[in-house]
Amino acid sequence: LNTFLPVPVMRLPKGPDLYGRGFDPQSPRFIALCRTSIPSSLASDVVPEELQREQLMRSELRERFLRCLLSMSNRKVRLSMYENVKVEATFGASDIDVLNFQVSDLHTPIGIQKEALIRSQDVISLTFDL
């Protein structure tokens, strides 16, 4: 007889404002995690057209990423992890920094977890069927 016990889910941290929304661009966390890799954002003599083009590219990429996350919600996903570990789960959500994935019914080589948080650093690839 196999009895599986549900695992409690840890609440993700709230954002810096009172309602848990947004972020402070001056915070050490933002500076560490969200530095720009495009030099135009850092230059003091920024050309407005170049900055506008950069912002447009970033907004398009962000929208595609958010649409991908939205389409994965409540779908079966397959995760390839380090040490050649393959797991399957139902995707729930991601935190704002994409550091953790919340999943349900996680099927691992050692058993099934009702709810779990998976660190994105441990995931090599994540696939799902449309």
Descriptive labels:
SH3 type barrels, 24% helix, 2 helices, elongated, alpha+beta, 130 residues, five-stranded antiparallel sheet
In summary, what is this structure?
The chain is built from two helices and five strands. It is α+β, with helices and mostly antiparallel strands and 130 residues long.
Describe the structure.
- The protein is α+β, with helices and mostly antiparallel strands.
- It folds into two domains: 25-72; 74-130, Roll (SH3 type barrels), CATH 2.30.30.100.
- It has two helices and five strands.
- It has helices at residues 28-33, 48-72, and strands spanning 76-81, 85-94, 100-108, 111-119, 123-128.
- It is elongated and about 65 Å long.
- The model has no long low-confidence stretch (mean pLDDT 79).
In percent, how much strand structure appears in the residues?
A: 25-35%
Which percent range fits the helix content? Answer: 10-25%
Largest sheet, in brief, is: 5 strands, antiparallel
How many strand segments? 5
* Total domain modules: 2
| pLDDT < 50 stretches | none
Strand order, sheet with most strands: 4-3-2-1-5
CATH hierarchy, class of the largest domain: Mainly Beta
Q: Based on the structure given, which CATH architecture of the largest domain is correct?
A: Roll
End-to-end C-alpha gap: 35 Å
Summed up, the helix count is 2
Shape estimate: elongated
